[in-house]
Amino acid sequence: MKIDKHTKYILGACLGVLLFGLGFKSGEYSALSSPLIKQDFSLYQDVWTTLSQKYVDQKKIVPKQMMYDSIKGMVSSVGDPYTFFLTPEENKNTKDDLGGKFEGIGAQLGLKDNKIVVIAPIKDSPAASAGILSGDIITAVDGVSTEKWTLPQAVSKIRGKGGTTVKLALLRSGKSLTMAIKRGEIKVPTIELSYKNKAAILKLSRFGDDTNSEWDKAVEIIAQKWGLPAGRQKIKGMVLDLRDNPGGYLQSAVYLASEFLPADVVIVKQVSIGKVDELYKSDRTGKLVGIPLSILINEGSASASEIVAGALSDYKKATLVGKKSFGKGSVQEAVDLKDGAGLHVTIAKWILPKGRWINKIGVKPDIEIDNKKNEGNTLEEKDDLQLAKAITIVIK
Fold first, then answer.
1. Domains delineated in the chain
2. Positions marked catalytic
3. Can you tell me whether residue 153 is helix, strand or coil?
4. What residues contact residue 189 under an 8 Å CB cut-off, 6+ apart?
5. pTM for the predicted model, two decimal places
6. Fewest 10 Å CB contacts: which of 104, 191, 230, 311?
7. Where does the PDZ domain start and stop, copy by copy (predicted)?
């Protein structure tokens, strides 16, 4: 999942370690005297001083950028693509993602085998209009290779002011291609509710800031239509569409899954080294317990989406339809640092109720169906075989 909404500030010492070599008072960061930190940082200080004094092109000595890049290097040394440092701009962009409004091309990105991969283009976005597909590997941005890039680096380079253009080099099914895409303002609705053949169809685009409140409103409507006496029901079941949903807040995944379960049922287990396992349970008896439910997933369904789909599948509360999901089973903590910078650090892995860890494996659907999109990367409702099957399951 892209971010889990934790508020623990436990990693500020990492920033303090490097700032000490840049002239900050060590007393401002008491963790420097911690017995856990035994490294001698005089080498870092020597390199900083020598480079600052002797490099031939002094215009390229930009202290703040040097500081940010050195922190990025330190964090990336652990070799985890989901643990990374964010500059203030990158941190803001990440939060804007979950807020649902930003400027860019409108593509959800992920990391797979240390490559920048398109999880899904956002509906009606410049990326979707240009023909970007789920699974496209972005190999270069404006002529610069993405090798060894972190997700925030990719986002910051691709995102930009509306009306400007970014050139992407892509690898698709082994073939190289390039696309010039004009950026625009991206508005991402969390929830879209529609009906077909006496089925409520709820499309969820992400697990973001407003998801829980929007979910409550939609569920209230669905519950009223489904909860009528027999023979008067306006809907017979529900389809939860999590296709191309890249995830978001862990807590939102737990909240949404709780809607279909009795209270105090384990939805996901968080496993960390040296800590007691943390169980996330349903926090209420849901309003839709017992509703016939099918869940649509595909290769663009990641993280929080996989928790909801996997947990409800484990409890036999839903039939999964579509394609195997993305496969991200780790938990990140988002830490806000000085001057608006941030740090995302992998703190645990999450396990589904029946013990499955789906990292790099994904959640397999009960019924596997592929949709064939046309050359314009569009899928018309009449050609949506996955949705048609999901509806059939819940109204039979």
1. 12-81 (no CATH), 101-187 (2.30.42.10), 191-395 (3.90.226.10)
2. 303, 314, 328
3. helix
4. 100, 205
5. 0.68
6. 230
7. 95-163
